[in-house]
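This part of the workshop introduces the protein records we will be handling. As an example, a complete record with its sequence and its structure tokens follows.
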Amino acid sequence: MKKILLAITALCAVFVMDAKVVLPNVIGDNMVLQRDSEVKLWGTAEPGKKVTVSTSWSKEKTVVKAGDDGKWTVSVKTAGAGGPFEITFNDGDILTLKNILLGEVWFCSGQSNMEMPIKGFNNQSVEGSADVIIGARPETPIRMCTVRRTASCTPQENCDARWLEHTPENVAGTSATAYFFAEYLQKTLNVPVGIIISAYGGTPIEAWMDKKTISEKFPEFNLAFLDADQKPKNLQHQPTTLYNSMVAPVIPYTVKGIIWYQGESNRKREKQYERLQPEFVGMLREQWGIGEIPFYYVQIAPYNYDNPMDNDGAKIREAQMKNLAEIPSSGMAVTLDIGDPDCIHPAKKKEVGHRLAYMALEKNYGFTMIDSYAPVYQSMEVKNGTAYLSFKAGRLGIGTRGRPLAGFEVAGADRIFHPAKAVIRGGNTVEVRCDQVPEPVAVRYAFHNYAEASFINNFGIPASSFRTDDWE
């Protein structure tokens, strides 16, 4: 009899637990919600039960009914930037979230250069990390939520994540690129900023895409493993597996935009990457369902790879540059000046985060007095043995900070490239000449795995590597 009573007690406890409101891990204490918006909140409760949602920034209450599966989703209006606030969920039992801020929220994703924390990796540092960590204060209104790394063959409804305050310990473990982006936005806008970080080192872009997109648009990927009993090793390298575990559980958390740092793992598949990245962005926008949200990404930095003079790294940078024209409401942060020939994780993450922030500030927050985009090659004209290259570079043109242009090469019909002399002629024109090539056919700039930048726009943003030819 005693055992029966204990079993009944346990079942009752489970029933009570199931009846209470349960929220996904991305909705919790310390979170930032998008200001002046209608944000999505969701969770589970007892099937058919009504859940009343109330917030301390508004007198309005919202009531939603849990479906037959216990799931519910509700839209809640937010106010202007500020906090801390509270949110209460009441289905008979009360659940209260505390220390909530209203501000700007960005989703930050990619592979290891997005994942790399402020404290760095083993034997790989982030420049300025000690000052950032020591200076972190909990009263600074920046909050971080990092999704734990995992992979899955099926879409998940929850993930291992938690919103954290701006303390030295928490900042040390936060993505450096995402942190410097958030820190610059917060300082400039003087509002709270929240970053949701979902990154996994060494992973290709197709792992971050959903099954529907891959199966319909990219039949070259074999998805049979999703239904197989035996799963492949390194599941995170397979198509859809990171979308399932590290993106799907975050949607539909309302965000302002997305920043993305990835591409190294798709090196040597640049033509495919040209197709993948625009579809990836379209998929994210469709899944979030909040319009053409901004998408700002980082062009991979120069690095030796197998040979510094090879150009497979330059080709993936080229694919990323081409996608600027294919992805609406996008921008690319060029990192040609901050690469490291011997480390694939450059230490200068502050520059990366700030360049992403410049684009967001110019395009989304009204700071139109800067030119946040890199100079982009437009066209070439050849006259009297000299190539004249035109660039789109903003209202004040291109420059060199007083140093001579370098890294230019010219080829004739024989397709053999030779180092060339280059000078700026006028605001957006570069004159390129090589005595060994009297009849130029093609020009390349910094088009190797490792290269160094030599010219910039008027606000210090370097031009991308590029080529005027399409030779293999």
Observations:
- The two ends are 80 Å apart (CA to CA).
- Confidence is low (pLDDT under 50) at residues 1-19.
